[in-house]
UniProtKB/TrEMBL annotation:
NCBIfam families in alphabetical order: mevDPdecarb (TIGR01240)
Gene Ontology cellular-component annotations: cytosol
Provenance organism: Tulasnella calospora MUT 4182
Record bears the keyword ATP-binding: yes
Enzyme class: lyase
Keyword Ribosomal protein: no
Family: Belongs to the diphosphomevalonate decarboxylase family.
Gene3D superfamilies: 3.30.230.10, GHMP kinase, C-terminal domain
UniProt-listed Enzyme Commission number(s): 4.1.1.33
InterPro entries xref list: GHMP_kinase_C_sf, Mev_decarb, Mev_diP_decarb, MVD-like_N, Mvd1_C, Ribosomal_Su5_D2-typ_SF, Ribsml_uS5_D2-typ_fold_subgr
Protein name: Diphosphomevalonate decarboxylase
Recorded catalytic activity of this chain's protein: (R)-5-diphosphomevalonate + ATP = isopentenyl diphosphate + ADP + phosphate + CO2
Length: 350
């Protein structure tokens, strides 16, 4: 069964777990799921009596499914739900068969563009569709959370909040839609791939180190996140780009400050990332100084790649600025086409 999930771009960050096994976060967070036309994970799953074990191929290379690992936990949970379907209805017994899952990301994997969010959301949706599970997106969100925390938000399109929950069993820690994508169609996201290298510190190990060593994270959890979470939801509902942009940039900055406050420190941005920040800061300064509004907001995940949010009317100016200051060999004959293009997926299940 095929499933496609779009990329998640962050407005308010998840960085820290209070339970590493169940993947329960130290704070609530909010992301924007981008449409699937350009950047996406495409996942196909199949079960067959001839398959000898569960297997996963990611971008054409087989990945190990460790027993008891996150992937195995997701598959196990989906199987359990399928068994319930088989018990109740006259459905074929496919829960005992092994699964082959094949996934392809048409954007850099493990480079701070939330591939684990898009990837695990697509995987859970694909197997749930194969199993014909009568599950709601929130129920699937609970499962994908156990694959990668950020994936619990990517089951939904548009503006999505992961409410951290309070229970120790995690049953109240899942994502909910704040607003659908068509609520704010003028809002666009421009992805600037600064580097497609795999990051040096994975999100999983980086955030654990932060939880263990950063005093700034404790301040952020208690005194910063709750208010910002309420404010950004309000800004989204009111389509208030000024407030959305300010909170998004502040939160990106604080996340990277928290990474730096980790021992040993983690550097996710590089010099080009910082230059893009300077460009957006200057663009906004000039606009506000001339009596105008904030034109764009930058945000950086756990990696050097920029996501720039902007109302559609400002995109042309921003793209022109980016290609002027960051020219690339032969890439920008048609910058608008170039920015709209993702790579094509190669084949399906091997
Ligand atoms: P990112 O910033 O890209 O989310 P992470 O370090 O959080 O980086 O996660 C990267 C890992 O997520 C990969 O090494 C892989 O294990 C998993 N992953 C990425 N894409 C997929 C996918 N399409 N299907 C299944 N797992 C995926
Ligand atoms: C920086 O969800 O990748 O993207 O739960 O350990 O798999 P695990 O981590 P992951 O962390 C994502 C962190 C982030 C911010 C965010 O998605 O909110
Ligand atoms: Co991730």
């Amino acid at each position: 069964m095929d499933d496609i999930t779009g990329l998640a771009a962050l407005a308010r960050r998840y960085w820290g777990k209070r339970d590493t096994k169940l993947i329960l976060p130290t704070n609530s967070s909010l992301s924007v799921t981008l449409d699937q036309d350009h950047l996406r994970s495409t996942t196909t799953s199949r079960c067959d009596p001839s398959f000898e074990k569960d297997r996963l191929w990611l971008n054409g290379k087989e990945e190990e499914i460790k027993p008891g690992g996150r992937l195995a936990v997701c598959i196990e949970e989906l199987r359990r739900l399928r068994k319930e379907v088989e018990k109740k209805a006259d459905e074929p017994k496919i829960s005992d068969l092994h699964l082959h899952i094949c996934s392809y990301n048409n954007f850099p994997t493990a480079a701070g563009l939330a591939s684990s969010a898009s990837g695990f959301a697509a995987l859970v949706s694909s197997v749930a569709a194969l199993y014909k599970l009568p599950a709601t997106p929130s129920q699937l969100s609970l499962i994908s959370r156990q694959g990668s925390g950020s994936a619990c938000r990517s089951l939904f399109g548009g503006f999505v909040a992961w409410e951290m929950g309070e229970k120790s069993d995690g049953t109240d820690s899942f994502a909910v839609e704040v607003a659908p994508q068509d609520h704010w169609p003028e809002m666009h996201a421009l992805i600037c791939v600064v580097s497609d290298d795999k990051k040096g510190t994975s999100s999983t190990s980086g955030m654990q180190r932060t939880v263990e060593t950063s005093a700034l994270l404790q301040h952020r959890i208690k005194h910063v996140v709750p208010q910002r979470m309420a404010d950004i939801k309000k800004a989204i509902l009111a389509k208030d780009f000024d407030t959305f942009a300010k909170i998004t940039m502040q939160d990106s900055n604080q996340f990277h400050a928290v990474a730096l406050d980790t021992d040993p420190p983690i550097f996710y941005m590089n010099d080009v990332s910082r230059s893009i920040i300077a460009l957006i800061v200057e663009l906004n300064r000039a606009s506000v100084a001339a009596g105008g509004k904030i034109k764009a907001a930058y945000t950086y995940d756990a990696g050097p790649n920029a996501v720039i949010y902007a109302p559609e009317g400002n995109l042309k100016e921003i793209i022109n600025l980016v290609v002027t200051y960051f020219p690339q060999a032969d890439a920008f004959k048609d910058p608008f086409k170039m920015f709209a293009a993702g790579q094509e997926e190669p084949g399906k299940l091997p």
